[in-house]
Amino acid sequence: MDVSELLDGLNDKQRDAVAAPLQNMLVLAGAGSGKTRVLVHRIAWLMQVEQSSPYSILAVTFTNKAAKEMRGRVEATLQGPVSGMWIGTFHGLSHRILRAHHREAGLPEAFQVLDSDDQLRLIRRLLKNLNIDEKKWPAKQFAWYIGAQKDEGIRPKDIQAFDINEQMMLKVYTAYQDACDRAGLVDFAEILLRCYELLNTQPTLLRHYQNRFAHILVDEFQDTNRIQYLWLRLLAGANSSMMIVGDDDQSIYGWRGARIENIRQFLDDFKAETIRLEQNYRSTSTILKASNALIENNAERMGKSLWTDGIEGEPISVYAAFNELDEARFVVGKIKTWLQGGNALQDCAILYRSNAQSRILEEALLQESIKYRIYGGMRFFERQEIKDALCYLRLVSNRNDDAAFERIINTPARGIGEKTLSHIRDCARHTSQPLWHAAKAILAEKHLSGRAANSVQQFIDIVEQIDDQLLDLPLAEQAKFAIERSGLMAMYQAEKGEKGRARVENLEELINACGQYEPPIEEEFSSPLQGFLAYTSLEAGEGQAEEHEDAVQMMTLHSAKGLEFPLVFMVGVEEGMFPSQQSHEESGRLEEERRLCYVGMTRAMTKLYICHAESRRLYGQEKYHSPSRFIRELPQDCVEEIRIKTQVTRPVAAGRFSSAVTHAAFEDSGYNLGQRVLHAKFGAGTVLNYEGSGAQSRIQVSFDDVGSKWLVTAYARLQPL
Ligand code: ATP
Ligand code: MG
């Protein structure tokens, strides 16, 4: 491709960025404005026009998929393979540097990378050595703490622990680090930190890389954390030029330590020039206008405007589903129509806030034999916590299930080590019986040490107790009992952070799934539990499309970053789901949720559906949710509301953006939006919302002292102020 072709297909601003002289640059621009495209063309420009060697280029992105795609796009633009260029993720690139200089980094040649399971096992072992009770001090909490420190570049020696909690964390962090260093192990966060420290303490090495990487380019910069930023800043030598592209409105990993401030810091540290791209090429003007209006509700913004000369397109359809099943039915119906129109499934994406939401959608797609692929997350019945729980149920229903036995004998940890386990395995092999029976035999023959014997006995008791209790209980109660009695629920509840929260939600969702399960009439199962287990094993393997097959793309909003699809469904857009309940508790979280909504909406090229359900069974409970505030923040003229056509017996939500309906509903209530009212218990507040009618109606009031609450209007006895 010659130079003019390189600049063809770019607008003036994009050209300015691609063809800029060698300097530090920030390309700050909204979604779909061609930031990634600029980055790719810049790489080609550097090679073709600046005659830079591929060896001198370092390109960093956030996921392996994005890195692979970027390489593909560079090669397509240059019409040939590029070798010697480093394109990768922060972790991938750091790992590569550590491998090359392991000795200087104080690591053995064959240093091992710990995954999160390995890490937990190691922490557990240490807790035992230190006589720390894991029930009080869960291993996951330490793992979370250690990761967070490393992401900030903080070593044990840098920490001053003031309270008992911090002292405990520090003690384990220190022991953990010692153990890792002795054995030559590095966890995920360590890879980056260790690489940073290596470069920081070895001037010759640093100079080598600084000289080599004359050009550093970073995509999705808004999601870098502190150590990633420091790493970049170190690698950029006096003569390097750095181009970072990003969008402060799409920063969605604050909860994992990402800092939007890094953008300002970069401008300061690098005296960089800012180039703003303002034309969006991805979405219809309707989708763009609505997304822009949404994000304007955030206060902390660097400020950008985005326009398109694309077609207006269809309005955004908002579907008020009766419940989550109805929502799934609606989505699948629309996908069928899409398919009948001769379109490809892969052009269609379903985006949700949390992984637990995928199950109902998976089922609905399976039922219609529509292929799907869950991207960047595990399918529901394949998730660790779900498998753990199912293995208890499997062992309860069949003591000969050796795979289940192996998985859960020491989950949650109850002090059964590899030695005991191999003892049981040997016995099983010699006597040709399943592990369960072998374990009982060994116990009877008193072949185990007192402690090991106790632990194995404890495990056997738990399984038998669950079995005893199951008689006559409905399936959901069985699952609930098993999840609690096994200790799984407590174990995951103790796990700190977003991941732990997600696992607990998933377990609750499993109970919910049991509640909704109806055994197929045509199949004979000796119990509902057996039927359910058969169904889950089918579920875990089938449905998901093969690599080459055309399939609907399903993923969380987080993993949709940077991608685009002609047809997008955002589901579960309800208060309490999205924004999530927790976002009310931590400052800044609501704005981050809004950015996530902005990311979701701006994935859509041609058509966007937003769905919310009046009631939703999730996490084991039926909840009534009002539509997300994010829906209310969309301009009315961009939105078309699809109403429920079925006969509804539950309270009907008032239309939240058809103002006529809202007003009518409010008139019916006798209150006005924004009106000040007094409640006998909660005190003074402001009316926020209203739904339903007559005896069923509910009113939302934001109380000055106790926050926002939904009240049944008839009982609230609010006095106008
Ligand atoms: P995000 O913020 O979501 O990562 P982005 O700013 O990186 O978005 P790109 O993915 O690079 O945007 O581009 C969005 C879409 O617009 C792509 O399909 C891209 O090919 C197209 N595009 C970008 N610039 C132009 C242009 N000048 N002419 C035509 N199409 C363009
Ligand atoms: Mg991009």
From TrEMBL:
Listed PROSITE patterns: UVRD_HELICASE_ATP_BIND, UVRD_HELICASE_CTER
GO molecular function, one term: hydrolase activity
Hydrolase recorded as keyword: yes
The protein's Enzyme Commission number: 5.6.2.4
CDD domains per the UniProt record, alphabetical: DEXQc_UvrD (cd17932), SF1_C_UvrD (cd18807)
UniProt keyword Plastid present: no
Pfam families named among the record's database cross-references: PcrA_UvrD_tudor, UvrD-helicase, UvrD_C
Record field: catalytic activity: ATP + H2O = ADP + phosphate + H(+); Couples ATP hydrolysis with the unwinding of duplex DNA by translocating in the 3'-5' direction
Domain spans labelled UvrD-like helicase ATP-binding: 8-284
Top-level EC class: isomerase
Keywords: ATP-binding, DNA-binding, Helicase, Hydrolase, Isomerase, Nucleotide-binding
Binding site for ATP: 29-36
Domain annotation UvrD-like helicase C-terminal: ranges: 285-562
Coiled-coil region(s): none
PANTHER family: ATP-DEPENDENT DNA HELICASE SRS2, UVRD / RECB / PCRA DNA HELICASE FAMILY MEMBER
Family: Belongs to the helicase family. UvrD subfamily.
Stated name of the protein: DNA 3'-5' helicase
Gene: uvrD
